[in-house]
Structure formats: structure tokens, C-alpha cells
Design a protein that fits this description.
By secondary structure, the protein is mainly α. The chain has 16 helices and no strands. The radius of gyration is 24 Å and the shape is elongated.
Length: 314
């Protein structure tokens, strides 16, 4: 579910929040990092369960209309196309997903049901829904395309939902684009023969990725003074106060990868941190960081200090 850039961003946020002192309790920072990463999965479950709650609400409304004492012919024979959407039924019947949602400490949409109502009403008002419901039959692909569009056009961009997530957990604002992308990829790949594990991907692709995040955090903290000395040596003409804390953290992490992670190519490290800088720091940060890291790499190469193994790692 997460790639290494996401993991690097979480390590960066942990180091930034801790103010980056070697005297910090490493276990505390490691716990913070893992909680922050696991929180992304909570958001993933929240977004998927919101889809299910909207589907459930439509089903409840349909059943109640059929049970009216003075039910009209339309009430008795409603258009059940949305309720019978094959993709939503597939998700709602997924036992693994239901188990994970039930294991959460709090059911968000049971406590904050008004947001389900917001999304449900927005869906009903949308041309997307009206066009979908214009007929009573559809193929699996029709149902899939509708759910993808529903998520993309109604759920993901909803401002009230965005504000709600911000109030619920501040880290979710940064996590939302990543989580929404993961969900869209799942929806685009879903098939009628999808197995039980499809909607419950692992948070980490493998054990190595999880260990990478923890190792990067620990090794950066333990060597921060040394890394800062290297940065200072390359920024003598810069006023230290002009270098943002986040740029310093990113350079510390990059130097850590240069020195402590021999299997990661230099180009990969530099490209990753430049992209993170573009997203999280100032407009000129990526150029500044690139210049400093380039000087450090040239020095390592000339002194034989570059700790890399394997072909194509420079």
C-alpha cells in the first residue's frame, strides 16, 4: 500500500516534530512513526467504510419506502440499481474488510452519521447519479465505473469531509491524497472474481520497507550532529537562520542514506528528497538541497567515502 516515498515523508514528519535532537528518546520517536503510519490505514478504512455506509443508507431508504402503508407503485418497485451495484455489494460482503472495520476503536460514521448524509445527498443531486440511474440494468464494468466516478467526483473533493478529517486527526490531511490514490487503484483493478484479501492490502509491501522506515529514523537521529557538521561545512556562505528546519531534516536523511544504506542508489535518494522538498518546503528548497547534496556526493566520491554496493548505485 505504501511506497518508500510515503515512508520517507513519515520519517521526515517524525524528525521535524521531535525537533531532531540526538538526546530524544528513540523508542518514543519510533512509536510516533509507527502510529503515524498505522493512522494512514485507519483513514483508508474510514474512506472505504464511508462508501459502504452510503450504500447501506440507500438500501435502508429503499426498504422503508417499500414498507409504506400507502406505498405508490414507484415505492413498491423502485429503481434498485445503486443498491444492487455489484462492486459495492462485493465490498460490503468482504469479510476481511468488515473484520478490520469492526476492530477499529470507534466507528466514525456511527458517531458522525451526518457526514454520511452529506455524501448521500450530494450523490443524489449529482448528474453522475442521475445518468447512472436512468436505466435499471448495468454490467459489472458499468457499476465499477460509477463507483470510481462517485469516489472521484463526490467523495474525494468534498470540503466538509476534508474539514472533518482535519479535525479528527491532523496527519490525515497529508495522508488523504495517498489514501485516495490507493482506493482508486483498487477500484480500477477490482473484478467480479476478486478474493477476500483484495480490499485489505498490507500497509507495507514487505518487511524490508517497514524496517527501512525504522532504520532511517534511528540512524538519522543517532548521527544528526555529524550530519549537521557536514551540512554546515557546505553552507558557510549561508545564514543558518535562512535554512528552514525542514530542509535541514531532508538533507540529514539524504546523507544518512548515502552513508548507512549501501543498497540505495545515490540518484534515487537525491530524486526522492528533491520531490519531497517540492511538496513540503519552500519553492527554492529543492534547488538549494540539490546543490548541497551534489557537493557532498562529489566529496565522498573523490575521497572514496561513498558506501554503495552493487552495479549502478552511484
Amino acid at each position: 500500500m505504501l511506497n518508500r516515498r510515503h515512508i520517507r515523508i513519515k520519517v521526515m514528519q517524525t524528525l521535524y516534530a521531535s525537533q531532531g535532537s540526538e538526546s530524544d528518546n528513540i523508542k518514543t520517536n519510533e512509536k510516533f512513526l509507527l502510529q503515524s503510519l498505522n493512522s494512514m490505514y485507519d483513514l483508508f478504512l474510514a474512506q472505504l467504510s464511508l462508501l459502504l455506509e452510503v450504500h447501506k443508507k440507500a438500501k435502508d431508504r429503499l426498504e422503508k419506502s417499500q414498507q409504506k402503508l400507502l406505498a405508490t407503485q414507484e415505492d413498491k418497485n423502485p429503481n434498485a440499481k445503486f443498491v444492487n451495484n455489484e462492486v459495492l455489494k462485493l465490498i460490503s460482503l468482504n469479510e476481511n474488510l468488515k473484520g478490520l472495520i469492526e476492530d477499529q476503536k470507534a466507528n466514525l460514521w456511527y458517531l458522525d452519521f451526518e457526514y454520511v448524509e452529506v455524501i448521500y445527498k450530494d450523490m443524489l443531486k449529482s448528474d453522475l447519479y442521475k445518468d447512472y440511474m436512468a436505466t435499471k440494468v448495468s454490467t459489472f464494468n458499468d457499476d465499477k465505473n460509477f463507483v470510481i466516478d462517485l469516489f472521484t467526483e463526490v467523495i474525494a473533493p468534498n470540503d466538509k469531509l476534508y474539514d472533518y478529517f482535519e479535525d479528527k486527526r491532523i496527519t490525515w490531511l497529508d495522508d488523504l491524497p495517498v489514501v485516495n490514490t490507493v482506493i482508486l487503484k483498487l477500484l480500477k483493478k477490482v473484478k467480479s472474481t476478486t478474493n477476500e484479501n483484495f480490499f485489505t492490502p498490507e500497509l507495507f509491501r514487505d518487511v524490508e520497507d517497514k524496517e527501512f522506515g525504522i532504520d532511517l529514523l534511528k540512524k538519522t537521529i543517532l548521527n544528526q550532529l555529524h550530519f549537521n557538521e557536514e551540512i554546515s561545512a557546505k553552507t558557510k556562505n549561508w545564514d543558518a537562520e535562512r535554512i528552514t528546519h525542514i530542509d535541514t531534516v531532508l538533507m540529514q536523511m539524504a546523507i544518512c542514506e548515502f552513508q548507512k544504506f549501501p543498497s540505495i542508489p545515490v540518484k534515487v535518494t537525491i530524486n526522492e528528497y528533491l520531490e519531497i522538498a517540492k511538496e513540503y518546503s519552500t519553492p527554492k528548497s529543492s534547488t538549494f538541497i540539490n546543490g548541497i547534496l551534489d557537493k557532498i556526493i562529489k566529496e565522498y566520491s573523490s575521497n572514496g567515502q561513498l558506501n554503495k554496493v552493487g552495479r549502478g548505485l552511484l
